[in-house]
Amino acid sequence: MGGRVTRVFRNFNVENRASREISKEKPTPAPRHRTARLDTVADSPEIKEKVLRKDDRFLTLLRDVYVESRDPPVQVKDGGGEHFPSKQEEKRLTKLGHLEALDVKKVSKGKISLVEALTLLNNHKIQPQIWTAEKIAAEYSLELKEVNSLLEFFIPFTVLEFPKKPKKVITSHEPKKLR
């Protein structure tokens, strides 16, 4: 509601106010300082002479400078549009079990997929004596340091079901009287 009120006041008599501002005479700008004028500087003969004069000392220094540039050899690219990795990475098949349709089939060594990460975290949570960090590192081709930090900082969610509380049963069916 406040926006409507301010809009009414803002738009009140807009056309007349705009035409009044447009019809005002433009203010004259303040006079500039005499050194700020470029036309007087360009007219002085001393400055023109300094600009056009050649300095022999600078010319000799300039002649001593020698720049040599060479372009790198041009390499012709085979336009197949295919990208070949410079280093062939070793791949391993994922260990997914019944979740095979949810994830990728091949993963680089030293990495794991998301489903594998959740699986190994859940296995370690359920049976920490069997699924130790060393066994997980050997099973999934990972570094032991990375597995330890993975087990320390990432914990899978747990679903807790609270027991239902028994509902209170009303013994009497008499309505309460209001006083």
How would you describe what is shown here?
With 179 residues, the protein is mainly alpha-helical. It has a domain at 94-153. It has helices at residues 2-11, 14-23, 38-43, 45-52, 56-64, 114-126, 133-140, 144-153, and strands at residues 91-93, 106-108. It has a two-stranded antiparallel ribbon. The mean pLDDT is 78. Residues 17-41 are annotated as: Disordered. Binds calmodulin. Interacts with NDUFAF3. Residues 17-27 have a biased composition (Basic and acidic residues).
Helix content: 40-55%
Q: Give me the side-by-side strand order of the main sheet.
A: 1-2
Task: Profile the largest sheet.
Answer: 2 strands, antiparallel
Summing up helix and strand content along with how strands pair, one would put the structural category as mainly alpha
Order of helices and strands: HHHHHEEHHH
Give the overall shape.
flat
On the 0-100 scale, what is the average pLDDT? 78
Family: Belongs to the NDUFAF4 family.
GO cellular component, one term: mitochondrion
Pfam families: UPF0240
Organism: Tichodroma muraria
In short:
The chain is mostly helical and 179 residues long. The protein has helices at 2-11, 14-23, 38-43, 45-52, 56-64, 114-126, 133-140, 144-153; strands at 91-93, 106-108.
Which terms summarize this structure?
single chain, about 180 residues, mainly alpha, two-stranded antiparallel ribbon, about 40% helix, NDUFAF4, NADH dehydrogenase [ubiquinone] 1 alpha subcomplex assembly factor 4
Write the layout of secondary structure elements.
Blueprint lengths: L1 H10 L2 H10 L14 H6 L1 H8 L3 H9 L26 E3 L12 E3 L5 H13 L6 H8 L3 H10 L26
Antiparallel strand pairs: 1-2
Helix pairs in contact: 7-8
